[in-house]
Design goal:
Layout lengths: L1 H34 L4 H10 L4 H12 L14 H25 L2 H10 L4 H11 L1 H16 L3 H7 L9 H11 L2 H27 L2
Length: 209
């Protein structure tokens, strides 16, 4: 049970950190593209990025962080920072894309309303952020859901090392291969529960007035 708790907390930490890192870049980019008139090129890249194969992302960072790679001297391979970086890349296009689409659909309407009432561009952006709260929450939920359930990139760059980089998804795969289906099912239920709780918290925040 102690190891199960350890794995669960590690999964929360890694997924939360990856989501926040992706949001730090994805939210501003999505807001900027949504308010400046999204370009077809930017939209194409972001939407294509939503379907990035996790194993390809993991392989890319494996080459980058391996001893013979450009960043091999940092010693990041098979560490939590490497997992967080890889997962943040997977979450980034989801967060940016959802934000861009949601903001773009309401920007002109909100802008015209605020300007008709004598408001400034800055006030229009502030109102837009408030009105887009649910969109941002949806973007964060999508990003978190993608990384908490990810297994390919985590295995490649993290190595599934016990007491170090093992998370819920890799633990489920390991226990299934070992034939311990009861433990694998338990870990799977915990994974679903964690996802549900975090999503519930985000939805509750989005519904606040």
């Amino acid at each position: 049970m102690n190891e199960t708790l350890e794995i669960t907390l590690r999964s929360l930490w890694v997924s939360g950190a990856a989501t926040l890192l992706a949001a730090a870049f994805g939210l501003p980019l999505g807001l900027w593209l949504g308010t400046r008139g999204r370009s077809h090129l930017a939209a194409t890249f972001l939407y294509a990025g939503m379907g990035l194969p996790p194993v390809v992302v993991g392989l890319f960072f494996y080459f980058l962080f391996s001893r013979s790679g450009p960043l091999g001297a940092l010693g990041l391979l098979y560490s939590l920072p490497a997992v967080i970086i890889a997962e943040s890349v997977l979450a980034f296009p989801l967060i940016a894309g959802f934000t861009m689409a949601g903001v773009a659909s309401r920007f002109e309407e909100v802008r015209k309303l605020v300007r008709s009432l004598g408001g400034s561009e800055a006030q229009a952006l502030l109102v837009l952020l408030t009105e887009s709260r649910k969109v941002i929450v949806a973007a964060l939920a999508a990003g978190f859901g993608a990384v908490i359930s990810e297994v390919g990139a985590v295995t490649i760059v993290g190595g599934d090392i016990r007491h170090a980089t093992r998370v819920l998804t890799t633990a489920v795969v390991l226990e299934t291969r070992k034939g311990d289906l009861e433990l694998a099912a338990t870990l799977g239920v915990i994974l679903l529960g964690v996802t549900l709780v975090v999503s519930g918290v985000l939805v509750a925040f989005g519904e606040r007035r």
